[in-house]
Amino acid sequence: MSRPKTAMVMAAGLGTRMRPLSNDRPKALVEVAGKPLLAYVIDPLVAAGVERIVVNVHAHPDQIEAYLAGRRDAEFLISDERERLLETGGGVKHARALLGDDPIFRCNSDYVWVKPGEPAMEALVREWDPARMDALVTVIPKDRTLGFDTPGDFYQDAEGRLTHRGERPSAPLHAFGVEIIDPRTIYADPREAFSLRDVWFRSADKGRLFGLQLDGLWMQVGDPAARDVAEAQLRARVS
Predict the structure, then answer these.
(1) CA of 5: how far to CAs of 88, 95, 101, 157, 183, in Å?
(2) Largest Cα–Cα distance in the chain?
């Protein structure tokens, strides 16, 4: 079992859809049930044994730096995108010197989930097979998600391989922004700014993009209404 010790957390978005909550703070520090979004992904990474966590920054970067400086449970490094946003793939490539070439967790910072039983990160580690996979992406059936505004992303075959819906009007699975990936597939892209989806699609064409379906409720927190829904779901589960 190969366990990544490094993670990349994407926190450099402008957060325009989250306004007015993001007028004076980065989207990653908007709170849900009293806890910043960024913590909802960092806490599970630390629990999974991740020792180094790289966070990219753009909007309100000093606030993210201050939040991370207050944590002592991992080594936190900043990948600076103040001058230019590089998208998801470009953001990872920009951080290569901090991430290294071994497999990493790569996570978005605007997701919240409630999963019974085995933690999500542990499930990914258990299923990760670098001999067969370029990436192992968390994928969730649409009826167990909230806050997604797309018609689904992927189909999955019996072996676990993913194919994107392409021109089809819908697909049964949403890609959730938590995965293990071989970052060398991202570094190989010659562009400076590009989407991680381009890398996924190339891996899918080679039969090396895999998905892991997990139980529980999985929520994308992209705007104030979605924040309110996620907060209500979390509070209902502790009341």
Answers:
(1) 20, 15, 12, 29, 13
(2) 50
Percent of the chain, pLDDT > 70?
99
User: What's the CA dihedral at 29, 31, 34, 40 to 10 degrees?
Assistant: -70
Answer yes or no: are the C-beta atoms of 227 and 147 closer than 8 Å: no
Give the pLDDT score at 141: 97
Question: Per the domain annotation, does 79 fall within a domain?
Answer: yes
User: What residue type is assigned to position 191 of the chain?
Assistant: R
Residue 69 has which token pair? 């400086």
* Alpha-carbon gap, residue 36 to 29, rounded angstroms: 5
> What was the pLDDT predicted at 61?
95
Can you give the CATH number for the domain in which 160 is found? 3.90.550.10
* Domain-located, residue 1: no
Count the helices and strands in the chain (H runs, E runs): 8, 14
Question: In a 10 Å sphere around its CB, with 0-12 CB exposed, 13-18 middle and 19+ buried, how is residue 88 labelled?
Answer: buried
Domain extent at residue 127: 6-238
Rounded CA-CA distance 70/74 in Å is: 11
3-state secondary structure of 178: strand
For the residues 78-99, what does the mean pLDDT come to? 97
